[in-house]
Design goal:
Distance between the termini: 30 Å
Number of strands: 18
Radius of gyration: 21 Å
Bound molecules: zinc ion
Largest sheet: 9 strands, mixed
C-alpha cells in the first residue's frame, strides 16, 4: 500500500538516539520508521534532507485566555502560534472566566475547545473546590492546578476563587487529588511572607516595576523557597504526585534533587523567561513589566539550567501568558497594577534550539524536556511524545541553521508584542504535523478550527473505547 505521507531522509531524534530515517504516516499515525532511503514513495513525499525531525512539542502550561479574556488571546491565535512553533499539544491553565473549578464550568470549556481548538489540548482544572475534584477528574483531564498566589492590587491574572495558600486547605486538596491518581501542579508562593515583604517596599514608596521585581526576588528568593519546602513536606505526608511550576531558585533545585533521590513523586517545570529574559537585570530595566516581571538572579538561573540539563528540573513549559500593552503600561509606575506574564508559545522552540546550536544543551535533552517527559509525566505516552511506529504523527521538521530575528511584527498572539523582540535565534520549524496533518506546511500556517482533540491519558482512552 502507498503511505499518505513519507518524510524522506530526515535526521530524527528517537528515544534511543539520533539517526537518519524515513518516516511513513498513514492517517493520524506513524505507520513505520525505516532506514533513510528505504521507504517506498508515498502519496506525498517530503524531501527532508537537512531537516531534523522532533516529536511535536507538548506544552503543559499555557494561558489560552478563553473563555472570558479573549481580548488578550483566543484559540485561533493559539493554534497559529503552536503551528509556527512546533507545538502539537497545548494544555490550558484555569485562570479563565468562568474558571474550571467545577465540572459544569469545565464541561463548558471543553465544549468550546471541541468546536474551535486547532491543536490538541486539555485543561488543567482548578483543584480548589474539594467536592468537585473527583468529578473534574472524570472529564479526562491530565492534571489539577492550584495557585498559591492571590493578587494584591489587581484582580488578574490571579483572581480570587482559584488561589489557595493556607496549609490545612492545601493539605485537604492534596489528599483529594491523590485519590484521583492525577498530578497536582502548584504555583508556589508564600502569601503571608509576600504580604510582609511587599509592605516594606510600599512603606518606602517603592511601587514601580523594579520594586515589584525586587520584592519577588527578595532575600535571595525566599518566597519561592519557603513555599516549595512546605509543598514538599505536604507531598510526603499525602503522597500526591506533585508538579512544581516556575522553578527559579537554586534552593528549589536542591530541594527537588533531594526529594527525587528519596524516591518521592515530584516533578518540576522551568519556563523560558527563567533562562532567556528575567535573568538579566538589563532586560527588567529595558522592558519593565513587559519582562513578566520577575527577576531571576544569574546564580539562580545558572543553577536551574544545570538542574534542567541533568533532568532534575523535568520539563520546559511556556507559561505563555499574553496581556495587552495597556495592561502592561501601568507597570512602569506601579508594578502591582500591571498584569504579570509574557507570551512565549510561538518562539520557545527557536530559543531552545539556539541554545542547542550554541552547545549549551543537547538536542536529545531538549526533546526529552519538551515532548517525551511531559508525555510520560502526564499519561500521554506512548501515543504522544516520541517518534515511533503506532504513535500519533505529531512531528516537527526543523531547520537547525535557519537564522531569524524575532520581531513584534511577526507576533501571532493577540497581544501583538513579544519580550524577545530583537533577539537573534537559530533553528526554526519548517513543517509541523499534528496527527498526520501539516499544520505548518513548508513555513505556511495551515491550521483548521475544530481539528484539535482532547489529549487523553492512555487509560482514559481505553475506558472510552470499552
Ligand atoms: Zn502560568
Amino acid at each position: 500500500m502507498t503511505h499518505d505521507v513519507v518524510i524522506r531522509g530526515t535526521k530524527a531524534v528517537f528515544e534511543d538516539g539520533i539517526r537518519d530515517a524515513d518516516i511513513a504516516i498513514d492517517g493520524e499515525r506513524i505507520a513505520a520508521v525505516t532506514e533513510a532511503g528505504a521507504a517506498p514513495r508515498g502519496k506525498r513525499d517530503i524531501e527532508a534532507d537537512g531537516l531534523v525531525a522532533l516529536p511535536g512539542l507538548i506544552d503543559m502550561h499555557s494561558h489560552h485566555r478563553e473563555p472570558g479574556f479573549s481580548h488578550k488571546e483566543d484559540l485561533a491565535a493559539i493554534g497559529a502560534q503552536c503551528a509556527y512553533g512546533g507545538v502539537t499539544t497545548s494544555v490550558a491553565m484555569p485562570n479563565v472566566s468562568p474558571p474550571p473549578t467545577t465540572a459544569e464550568n469545565l464541561d463548558g470549556m471543553l465544549a468550546l475547545y471541541r468546536e474551535r481548538a486547532m491543536v490538541d489540548y486539555n485543561v488543567n482544572a482548578s483543584g480548589v473546590e474539594l467536592d468537585e475534584i473527583p468529578k473534574l477528574a472524570e472529564r479526562g483531564i491530565l492534571a489539577f492546578k492550584i495557585f498559591m498566589v492571590v493578587d494584591t492590587g489587581r484582580s488578574y491574572p490571579h483572581m480570587p476563587g482559584i488561589g489557595l495558600h493556607e496549609h490545612g486547605e492545601l493539605y485537604k486538596r492534596m489528599k483529594a487529588v491523590k485519590a484521583t491518581g492525577l498530578p497536582l501542579m502548584i504555583h508556589p508562593h508564600d502569601q503571608s511572607l509576600m504580604d510582609a515583604i511587599e509592605h516594606e517596599y510600599w512603606d518606602r514608596g517603592e511601587r514601580d516595576y523594579a520594586a515589584y521585581a525586587k520584592a519577588y526576588a527578595h532575600d535571595d528568593g525566599v518566597i519561592w523557597d519557603t513555599a516549595v519546602a512546605l509543598l514538599l513536606r505536604l507531598q510526603e505526608a499525602t503522597g500526591v504526585r506533585l508538579h512544581l511550576l516556575h522553578t527559579q531558585t537554586k534552593r528549589v533545585v536542591e530541594m527537588l534533587r533531594a526529594a527525587k533521590a528519596a524516591g518521592r513523586t515530584v516533578s518540576a517545570e522551568v519556563n523560558p523567561w527563567c533562562f532567556w529574559l528575567d535573568n538579566d537585570w538589563k532586560n527588567i530595566e529595558r522592558l519593565g513589566s513587559y519582562a513578566l516581571s520577575y527577576y531571576v538572579a544569574p546564580h539562580h538561573s545558572a543553577a536551574v539550567y544545570e538542574g534542567f540539563r541533568d533532568g532534575t528540573v523535568d520539563i520546559m513549559a511556556t507559561d505563555h501568558a499574553p496581556h495587552l500593552r495597556e495592561e502592561k503600561e501601568p507597570g512602569w509606575k506601579d508594578g502591582w497594577k500591571a498584569h504579570t506574564g509574557t507570551p512565549s508559545e510561538q518562539f520557545y522552540l527557536s530559543l531552545l534550539l539556539t541554545d542547542v546550536n550554541d552547545g549549551k544543551l543537547s538536542l536529545e535533552r531538549a526533546v526529552d524536556a519538551t515532548a517525551t517527559r511531559p508525555a510520560k509525566l502526564f499519561g500521554l505516552y506512548p501515543r504522544k511524545g516520541a517518534i515511533r511506529a503506532g504513535a500519533d504523527a505529531d512531528i516537527v521538521l526543523v531547520d537547525m541553521t535557519e537564522r531569524r530575528t524575532i520581531r513584534d511584527e511577526d507576533v501571532l498572539s493577540k497581544c501583538g508584542w513579544t519580550p524577545y523582540a530583537g533577539r537573534e535565534v537559530r533553528g526554526a520549524a519548517r513543517y509541523t504535523f499534528l496527527r498526520g496533518a501539516a499544520i505548518l506546511d513548508d513555513g505556511k500556517i495551515a491550521v483548521r478550527s475544530g481539528f484539535g482533540k482532547q489529549a487523553m491519558r492512555a487509560t482514559e482512552r481505553a475506558a472510552v473505547r470499552a
